[in-house]
Design brief:
78 residues; alpha+beta; two-stranded parallel sheet; 2 helices; 2 strands; elongated; GTP-binding; GTPase activity; P-loop_NTPase
């Protein structure tokens, strides 16, 4: 199975393409920054969009926090 990675880097310029990738994707890795609370909060919206586009709740999703090495964490480990 081929692997495609769409790294939007948090920019909105890729928004029109998101649903196409969501529709064709078989699994998703959602990444947020532990030093930016807003990126963590956006994960639930993005997940809901994936579920809506796929039309099913049984979609493999992994949530990953990055920038864990930085001292100014605002998203808790819990």
């Amino acid at each position: 199975m081929p692997l495609e990675i769409l790294d939007t880097a948090g920019t909105d310029c890729f928004t029109p393409m998101w649903e196409l990738y969501m529709k064709n994707g078989h699994g998703f890795i959602l990444v947020f920054s532990v030093i930016a609370q807003s990126t963590f909060l956006n994960i639930s919206e993005l997940y809901a969009q994936i579920i809506r586009v796929k039309g099913c709740e049984e979609v493999p999703v992994v949530v990953v926090g990055n920038k864990c090495d930085l001292a100014n964490r605002v998203v808790s480990v819990e």
